[in-house]
Amino acid sequence: MTSEPGDPTLEELAVSAAAGDREALEQLLAEIQPHVRRICGRMLIYPEDAEEATQDALMLVATKIGSFGGRSKFTTWLHVVASNSARSTYRSLKRRAAERPTDELPHTPDPRTTSVIAGSRLDLMEALDVIGVDHPELVEPLVLRDVQQLDYQEIATVLGIPLGTVKSRIHSARHAVRPLLTIKD
Fold first, then answer.
1. CATH fold label, 107-185
2. Which listed CATH number (1.10.1740.10, 1.10.645.10, 1.10.760.10, 1.10.10.10) goes with 1-105?
3. Nearest to 49 by CA among 87, 78, 99, 104
4. From its phi and psi, is residue 9 left (phi > 0), alpha (psi between -120 and 50) or beta?
5. CA 48: distance to chain centroid?
6. Does the global pTM surpass 0.70?
7. pLDDT (tens digit, 9 = 90+) per residue, 61-90?
8. What's the pLDDT tens digit per position in 9-29?
9. How many CB atoms lie within 10 A of CB 14?
């Protein structure tokens, strides 16, 4: 997300796009696409899945830019949109896989194509789904902090909750996720 001297910043583009400027929206989408792809790629294992989530996130930005009120930085708002899109794509892929006949599914994971990092991402996505059932308020702060690496104040601003609540939710989420990520023999 680099620009030439005199070019509008992402914040300026976002404000213009939110006000209905179609040209600003087109420029904004072009500028953020690589960044959104990186955000989605942090959460999803396969490039095709991350690309699907990226396209969904860009569509959401295009249709929901009017809801960007400037309370937080645009990039913080974008992290939330992209993270939610990646989680939604994961749930959709999981649902589609469950609907396929079992004879189409591999019987055991192939260690040559499933890395430790990939496995841990799947475990985290599963854990987030599990805690999200009973405590959905814990998931987004944890993703924004531990996966997307936003600082606590940015999370508080974008979620519209006090800083102490953000810290408390992240602590509770880590506590809830930890046993779900413990290696089982």
1. Arc Repressor Mutant, subunit A (1.10.10)
2. 1.10.1740.10
3. 87
4. beta
5. 15
6. no
7. 999 999 887 777 898 889 889 998 998 888
8. 999 999 999 999 999 999 999
9. 25
